[in-house]
């Protein structure tokens, strides 16, 4: 709804949210003078953000979506949370949404690779093994569905999500994720 106010019409529905909390108070920049009748004169204020140590309060995802879509949304929203917790506060929409889409895409790629016939269930944790064996070999339907979700990210036409993903993905492919994130932290933009 907020995007629609500013003219951004991207998706007809919200599938996930990362909620965070901050408070803004006014600080006094110039000490006030007291004029006739005890009136305050010449006081200048500025907004000041108060932040808590952990300001991410929740990640919300629509219930009932396919597992691969849910996982990619969770990867996207967790990247938003990571950016907040690490102090990446003033990123442009295309950089923030772009790098979050890169993580969603990377998660989908990893899931599709892990289900390509390899024995994912070979682990010491029996509870993990039982859930992993379910995805050990991906069904043709799941593979096509995952490829479709990847294609949706890759072919998105919006400037924020689509162009942001393409710029972020190009940077990650060229420099790797850690160097790309460090560059974003230092400059607020993707490396070229």
From TrEMBL:
Pfam families linked: DA1-like (PF12315)
Single GO MF annotation: ubiquitin binding
Domain Protein DA1-like: 1-187
PANTHER family membership: PROTEIN DA1-RELATED 1 (PTHR24209:SF25), PROTEIN DA1-RELATED 2 (PTHR24209)
Protein name (database record): Protein DA1-like domain-containing protein
Organism: Liquidambar formosana (Formosan gum)
């Amino acid at each position: 709804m907020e995007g629609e106010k500013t003219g951004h019409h991207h998706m007809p529905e919200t599938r996930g949210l990362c909620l965070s909390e901050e408070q803004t108070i006014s600080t006094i920049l110039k000490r006030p003078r007291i004029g006739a009748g005890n009136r305050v004169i010449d006081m200048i204020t500025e907004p000041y953000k108060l932040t808590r140590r952990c300001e991410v309060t929740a990640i919300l995802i629509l219930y009932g979506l396919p597992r691969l879509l849910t996982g990619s949304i969770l990867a996207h929203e967790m990247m938003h949370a990571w950016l907040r917790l690490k102090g990446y506060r003033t990123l442009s929409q295309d950089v923030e949404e772009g790098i979050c889409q890169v993580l969603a895409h990377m998660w989908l790629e990893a899931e599709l690779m892990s289900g390509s016939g390899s024995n994912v269930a070979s682990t010491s944790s029996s509870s993990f093994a039982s859930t992993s064996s379910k995805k050990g070999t991906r069904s043709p339907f799941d593979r096509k569905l995952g490829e479709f979700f990847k294609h949706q990210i890759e072919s998105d036409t919006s400037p924020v999500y689509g162009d942001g993903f393409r710029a972020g993905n190009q940077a990650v492919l060229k420099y790797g994720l850690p160097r790309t994130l460090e560059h974003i932290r230092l400059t607020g933009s993707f490396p070229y």
